[in-house]
Amino acid sequence: MEKVINIIQGRVEQKKVTVLQDVNVTISSKEFVYLIGKTGSGKSSFLKTLYADLRLVDGQGEVVGYDLNKLKKREIPLLRRKIGIVFQDFQLLTDRSVMKNLFFVMKATGWKKKAIMEQRGLEVLRMVGIEEKAYKMPHELSGGEQQRVSIARALLNNPELILADEPTGNLDPETSGAIMNLLHAIAKEGTAMLMATHDMGLVEKFPGRVLRVEKNTIKEVEAMGNFNPFEVKEF
Ligand SMILES: Nc1ncnc2c1ncn2[C@@H]1O[C@H](COP(=O)(O)OP(=O)(O)OP(=O)(O)O)[C@@H](O)[C@H]1O
């Protein structure tokens, strides 16, 4: 299977302080992978490194075919076009409709023809089950619906990888479950998913590969057989 993330002996800093080191992580297409760990352990920092918002200080890294060490500033938008990013707080533009939120991203990533943009907008909204909300304003939607819009936005450019930072953090358990089903369905279609969460209930309910951030590094959690996310396999 094709590797969408390959980090070898990676090190990540925040303000000159090492947050993660000796990071070795490989993720292939279609995989659904959780990134767990305590608050402040470095989950967001790792995701930021993958979408080139933080530098990979040492080590090698390749994300959707881009070499993180060689990536020039002007190439960052090209990398982000092949990655979908979903945040806990949705990050929708509140002053415009759902469709105009999608247009905003499409324009920024090189789409030009309005009719084609509208067609693609409706298509991704259909994929997440809210096509009928296309012309509503964000505040007219529930939290779960807003998160579906942000997932639709992440899907616009057919990403090879979706990075989701606590995507269910602001949602009630039932809505979280529906969003998890959606994310799993997207991963099955071929988009790799790396999802940071500290909701262990979700990890148990929707099994997947688990990586744990602890002691300034990332470890694979043994998830075979008796699933126990607290059992850590040492490298
Ligand atoms: N912009 C920043 N400037 C300086 N230090 C930062 C910055 N962002 C994060 N840090 C520090 O880096 C470390 C890792 O933070 P990070 O946000 O990656 O953790 P996290 O696991 O995502 O936490 P949470 O679950 O609370 O989101 C923490 O010690 C944090 O204080």
Low-confidence stretches: 231-235
Ligands bound, unique: adenosine-5'-triphosphate
Number of DSSP helical runs: 7
**What does the average pLDDT come to?**
92
- Main β-sheet, in a few words? 6 strands, mixed
What fraction, in percent, of the residue positions are helical?
25-40%
SSE topology string:
EEEHEEHEHHHEHEHEE
Strand content: 25-35%
The shape, in one word, is globular
Based on CA atoms alone, the radius of gyration comes out at: 18 Å
Helix/strand-derived category reads alpha/beta
In spatial order, strands of the major sheet run 6-7-8-3-9-10
From the N-terminal CA to the C-terminal CA, the straight-line distance is: 22 Å
| Number of DSSP E strands | 10
Function: Part of the ABC transporter FtsEX involved in cellular division. Important for assembly or stability of the septal ring.
Domain ABC transporter: 2-235
Protein name: Cell division ATP-binding protein FtsE
GO molecular function: ATP binding; ATP hydrolysis activity; transmembrane transporter activity
